[in-house]
Known about the structure:
The structure holds three protein chains of three kinds. By secondary structure, chain A is α+β, with helices and mostly antiparallel strands. Chain A folds into two domains: 38-150, CATH 3.30.1330.10; 158-323, Phosphoribosyl-aminoimidazole Synthetase, Chain A, domain 2 (Alpha-Beta Complex). Chain A has eight helices and 15 strands. In chain A, helix 5 runs antiparallel to helix 8 (282-290). By secondary structure, chain C is of the alpha/beta class. Chain C is globular and about 65 Å long. The B-C interface holds B 1-6, 8, 21-22, 29, 31-34, 41, 43, 45-48, 50-51, 53-55, 57-58, 60-62, 64-65, 68-69 and C 1-4, 6-7, 12, 15-16, 19, 37-40, 64-66, 92, 119-123, 142-143, 145-146, 148-149, 152, 195-198, 200-201, 222-223, 226-227, 230, 233-234, 237, 249-255, 259, 261-262, 265. Strand 9 (189-190) of chain A pairs antiparallel with strand 3 of chain B, so a sheet runs across the interface.
Amino acid sequence: MKENKIILSHGSGGKLMHNLIESIFLKNFKNDILVKLYDSGIIEFDDFDLCFTTDSYTIDPIFFKGGDIGKLSICGTVNDLAVCGAIPLYISSSFIIEEGFEIKNIEKIVKSMKKTAIDAGVKIVTGDTKVVEKGKVDKIFINTSGIGIKDKRIKLGIERIEEGDVIIINGEIGEHGLSVLLSRNIYNIDSDIKSDCAHLNILISEILKETDEIKFMRDPTRGGVSATLNEIVKGRNFGILIYENKIPVKKEVLSMCEILGFDPLNIANEGKVIIVCGKNDSEKVIKKMRKNKYGKKAEIIGEVIKKPEGKVLIETLTGARRIVDMPVGEQFPRIC
Amino acid sequence: MCLAIPMKVEKIEDDYAIVSLGNVKRKVNISLIENVKKGDYLIIHAGFAIEKLDREEAKKTLNILREIK
Amino acid sequence: MKYLDEYRNTEIQKEIITEIQKYSKITKEKINIMEVCGTHTMAIGKYGIRKLLPKNINLISGPGCPVCVTPEEYIDTAIELSKGKDIFISTFGDMMKVPGSFSSLEKERGSGAKIFVVYSPLDALKIAEMNKNKKVIFLSIGFETTTPLISQTLKIAKEEKIKNFFLLSGNKLIPPVMEFLLNEKDTEIDGFICPGHVSAIIGTEPYIKISEKFNVSCIISGFEPFDILISILLILKNIKEGKGKVINEYKRTVREEGNIKAKKAIYDTFDIVDSEWRGIGIVKDSGLKLNENFSDFDAEKEFGIKIKISGRKKSCICGEILKGKKNPFDCPLFEKVCNPENPIGPCMVSSEGTCSAYYKYERK
C-alpha cells in the first residue's frame, strides 16, 4: 500500500520516516554533506570543521515528568552536535505559538531553556517568534538550530566501523518515551518514570579526549535503540549483535513494557548516546563514562560482527539469537 | 489476545483494585474474581483481572522438568 | 518481576532443550506443533525459540491472533463508520496497523478520522462518558480472554444508562477453529500449545473433547520461555507414548473449571454465530454476536450496516500454511506482493506470524 498522505508514523523515526527522507528530501536536496545523513552537517574549513544541525520540537504534552519542550529543544540540538564530535557553541531558537497560549507557560519554557543552555555551556544568539491562529499549531512548536566546532583530528564516521568494535550505551533506556505517554494520561498507569532528557556534550568530550578509538556516535531518539542500530548497519558489510542481559533498563520501564506490550528497544530516549568504539580502549571509555553524571550506568551492550551483513541481532534470555527489526512506526499498546 | 501479567493487589475499592508490578500501578476491574485480598497476585489483561495466581502451583510448575526426567 | 522472572531462567531452559533434543530423536521424523495464540507467537519470536529446537520440530503459528484473523471487511466497515459525523472509533492498539481492503485505521487517523487507541474497553467507555454528543464505537475483537471484559464493560454501560457507546462485534472462539483445522483431511498437527489465558477462562474441558476425538496432544501453556519449552517437551513425550493427552502446564493461572464468572459473562451478553476468519473462511459456531439483551449496543443495528464478506478469491495460501501443509515459500505472493509493510493474510499481518517469521529469518 503506497502512502500518498503523511501519517503520524512518518515522524516516528522508523522505516516510514526513512523512506520519506530518502525518497523526497535527500533526492531533491542532494549534496555531499547531506547525503551522509549524520546528526549534524559537517562543513570542512582549513583549521577546523563546522558542525551545523537543526531540530524541531512538537511534543505533547509540553510539560512532562523529567522535562519540558524547552529543555528538550536545547538538549536535542546540543546532542546532535556532540555526537558528531563538535563542541556545541551557539543555538538559535524559533517559536511558533498558538493564539491563546498562556504567556506564563512561555516564560516557564524559556527559563528552562536558559537553565539548560547554561548547564550545557551554549549561548542562544538569535531567534524568531511567530503567532498563528488557534488550531493551526498545537500550543507551541520550537525549532532550534546549533553550530559547533570540531577538531579536525576527530574523525567519526560509519566507514571507520569494523568487526570486533563494541557497542556502548551510557545508561538505562526507554524512559523518555514512556514518561511522555504517562504524562498524556491515556492509559491510566501510575509510575515514577521520568524522562532522561539531558545534554551529553560534556560526557562525550571527556571520552573523545580519552581515546581516538571512538568510531561513531548517535543518540537513539525516536525509534529507540533499534532504529539507531539499524541505521548504522543499513547497506553496510557488517552487522551488530547485542545481548539482552547486558542492556541497562530500569525495573519500572520493564514493568510498564510488560503491561502495555512494548519493547524497550523501540522507545525514544533523550539523554542517551550509542557509541561504537574499538575493543581495546572500550574498558577505559566505560570507566571514564561512569564517572560522569550521565554515564553512571554505562555498559557495553554488544559488538560489531561480520555476518549477517546489514542486520541487527539480539541474543535473548534463552541464548537464541533473533533479528532486531527497524521499528515500522508508532508503537501502540497490545492486548495480543 | 493473551497479553496478561501477574500484578500484586495493593488496595481494594469495591469492584476495583489498585495493582502493582514493581512500582508501576494501575486501577483494574476485579468483578470477574471472587475473594480478592490485599497481597494476592492477579492476572491482569486489558485493565481487568481474569484470574488469581495460585502461588503453590507456581512453585510446583518449576519442578515439572524433574518429574519428566 | 515476581512470577515472571522465575520462568525466564536461562539454566533451566538449557536443561529442557537438552531433553527436547533427546526426545526429538526417538519420536517421529517430522513433528508439527501448532500454537493458537498471538501472544505465544510473539513470545516464540521474541525469545528466538524456533532457533533452539531441533530441525525436525516444525513450530506452526496457528490462527491465534484475533486481530490478524479479523476479515478485511471488518476493518473496511470500521473505516467507513469513522467517516460519519460525530463518530469516534475506539480500538485496541493491535488493530491500528492491520490493512483492510484499501487502508488501515492508522492511515485513516492521519486523514482526520477520530480514532482512539485504548488499553482497556473501560477506557473506551470513559471516552463515551466524556463525549456525550458523540457516538463512540468500540472495535470489539478478541478471543475468550478478552470477551468477558467486554461483557463486563457493557454491563456497566447498561447500569449507568450510557446511550452513546456501541460495539462492532468481531469476537471469536478458539476451540471451534482448532477442530476446524483438525477436520481438514490434509492437516498434520501432532500437538497443540494451547493458549494459557483463553484457557484461564474456558478451563480444560474443551481440549479434552478435541484431544480424544483426534488423538492429538493439547498442552495448556503459559507464556514465558520455560512454559513454552516445557510444553513442547510434554508434546514430544506424549507422541513417544503414543497418546494424545491434555496437560495443564499453566496451573498457576488455569483452573480445570476455568473462570465460571467470566464464562457466564460471555454468554449473558453474546450469542454464538458462524464467523469468517481471514485467510481461512467460514468456521461454524466460532463467532460471537451481541444477544437481544444488549442489542442496543450493537453498532450494526444502530447504524444499519452489515459487515459483508466479499468472498473474493485471493492467491493467499495462509489457510494451507496454518494447517501445516505448506510453507511461505510455496505462496506466490510471498515477498513479491505480501511482505511486512504490505501484508495480505494473517500469517504476515501478525508481526510474528509464520510468514513474518520466514520473511525475517529464512529468506536469503
